[in-house]
Design goal:
The chain is mainly β. The chain is built from 2 helices and 28 strands. The chain has a 4-stranded antiparallel β-sheet with strand order 3-2-1-28, with no helix packed on it. Strand 26 and strand 27 form a beta hairpin. It is globular.
Length: 368
């Protein structure tokens, strides 16, 4: 290396060494991460410019040990990682298939529930099946009251029966299952959540009270501590606990070992969105994009489209959004949004040659 090359190398090394890490003081780590990436891109751009200068000088002076030659720029990355094919399950009316990644299962579907690695499909009113690559398996022995619920660990709970045969609450998990015949005053209840310790949260038939059933202790106890503003009829599952809506507000909470509801944090929302797998992020369509709420606050991922619905999370950093026309029951677009990069990208076709993410026809996704 000649004197010119050595001097330039020392100056570039000194420039990189003198760069200080920024001080981050903001409640939104996603926003901080975005600013840091912008800063890094600026730094890299500066170093790249300096490197181009070195190449230019060396190109004039000649490269030692070889012939003078041009340096081609690195190729641009192909595609957009956010635009990769859909990973959430979806059902197409044209082929009657539930698509689970690269697998397809023939089943009629009127609704889809998906949490973690568990997928449930409603085939008729009161009839649900669990679907995996092996095919659909009926959920329970009788009509299901309301909608089943899926716990964070994949445990499924539901209430089944009818006024003539009576009602039972049923739990099915990887380690087995259990059931309890409900007393007369609990008939018509529905399951609304599975707690981390295995308790099933039940809502009364008149939607005014909550209780829990402990499969181990085989007992039902009332839930206390709900605020007067809580809309009991809309209380639903959240990984790790429950979400209790009140007018224009969602309260993320838990039920403690004394069966008291305890509020943890709250955010604006109407409940039409979806919770991340850890239960610590809530995404909902809002003006100008997708609003992501956490304990620390909220931010909006820009997406200038109408008729948006959040249909589910593929990871704790990526959420899937559909443009859904309710009158036509049509999905006209699918986006994947990053809560770290604060941007969205159109999902690629799931089949080669398709103009949309699926062939034409009615499409069903979780959350629709």
């Amino acid at each position: 290396m000649n004197d010119l090359e050595q001097r330039l190398a020392r100056e570039l090394g000194s420039l990189a060494t003198d760069l200080d890490a920024p001080h981050v003081d903001t409640p939104g780590l996603a926003a901080a991460g975005r600013r840091e990436r912008v800063r890094r891109r600026s730094v890299v751009a500066g170093l790249a410019a300096a490197a181009v200068a070195v190449v230019a000088v060396l190109g004039q002076t000649g490269l030692p040990g070889g012939h003078d030659r041009a340096v081609d720029p690195a190729p641009a990355p192909a595609g957009d990682a956010l635009g990769r094919p859909l990973e959430l399950p979806w059902w197409g009316a044209d082929d009657g298939q539930l698509h689970l990644g690269d697998a397809q299962v023939a089943v009629d579907a009127t609704a889809i529930l998906h949490a973690g690695r568990t997928t449930l499909v409603r085939t008729d009113p009161g009839a649900w099946v669990r679907v995996d690559r092996g095919g659909p398996n009926p959920l329970g022995d009788g009509p299901v009251s309301g909608t089943p619920v899926i716990g964070a660990d994949g445990t499924v709970a539901w209430v089944e029966g009818d006024p003539e045969t009576g009602w039972s609450v049923v739990v099915s998990s990887a380690t087995g299952g259990s059931a309890l015949s409900l007393p007369p005053d609990a008939e018509g209840s529905t399951a609304v959540g599975v707690l981390p310790d295995g308790r099933v949260v039940l809502r009364s038939a008149d939607a005014t009270e909550l209780s829990t059933w402990d499969p181990d202790g085989q007992r039902i106890r009332p839930v206390t501590g709900l605020s007067a503003e809580a809309q009991v009829g809309l209380i639903g599952p959240r990984p790790g606990g429950l979400v209790a809506p009140s007018p224009q507000t969602l309260v993320a909470g838990e039920v403690d070992d004394r069966n008291r509801f305890r509020a943890l944090w709250e955010t604006d929302g109407d409940g039409s969105g979806a919770w991340s797998g850890d239960g610590e992020q809530y995404a909902e369509a809002a003006a100008g994009g997708i609003r992501i709420a956490t304990r620390a606050g909220a931010t909006v991922v820009p997406l200038e489209q109408g008729d948006l619905r959040v249909v589910g999370w593929e990871s704790d950093s990526e959420v899937v959004v559909a443009q859904y026309l309710a009158e036509d029951e049509a999905v006209t677009g699918i986006w994947r949004c990053s809560v770290v990069e604060l941007r969205c990208a159109l999902v690629e076709p799931s089949q080669p040659g398709a103009d949309a993410f699926v062939p034409g026809g009615r499409v069903l996704l979780p959350g629709l």
